[in-house]
Amino acid sequence: MNEKLMWFNQDIQFMFHSNIVEYDMRAMSVSISEKYGLLDEETIRVLKLLPKEQRTKRVGLLQKDDKNYSERLIQCELETRRKFLETNGLDKTNVISLHSDACIFNSKKKVINNIEGIEFKHANTWTAYMIYKGIEMFYADGVITYKGIPKEMLNKHTLGIHKYLCTVFDKVENYDPEILDFLSKFQRRYLQDKLQDFFYIPFGRMGDYKMSNLGLLSFVAKVVLEEMKGW
User: Fold this and answer.
1) Is residue 170 part of a domain?
2) What percent of the chain has pLDDT over 90?
3) Domain limits at 67?
């Protein structure tokens, strides 16, 4: 689970009525480099003074110029993340995904966020989750946070598939008995070309107009039916 910078839990395709949280390392590159002595004190001092965007760019250049530093930084990052997971009793039963220095998991326990001097800060809290073809969807209070889809592509779905997904999340989270009727009517109108054009734009990086989204609609229907078994 912790061997790669990015990892998705294949056993968790969806989750509702939960306490999903995201924690990430504060100023990861600087914190790790300082703790493990990967850079000299002067370089560390300069990096600490830089705004986040500039710091990230500078560390990227350092990694490009020094492969050994790059490899050590990644190794130490993974080691620190492993300690965070183990310290908080997190494993495949509750970890949803790992994104470099960020850990996303479902838990209501108090989180131990200081790992040997390196702080993991709370970034987000959500109540529901779905993943479809590598696109993660985190939901809370009417808002979906996406990971794994380009922002420019996501903007094309604002009034279409995004709106549809928001409705689905909202209805499931509120145990709305009309969710199946909503799904049925939506899919029927979709197939009959009675929706506005932007609903048919492929959801993801690539795909065929209209046809690609049929897989998403089918996936959502299966998720809802499975979730409703517990109602």
Assistant:
1) yes
2) 89
3) 23-126
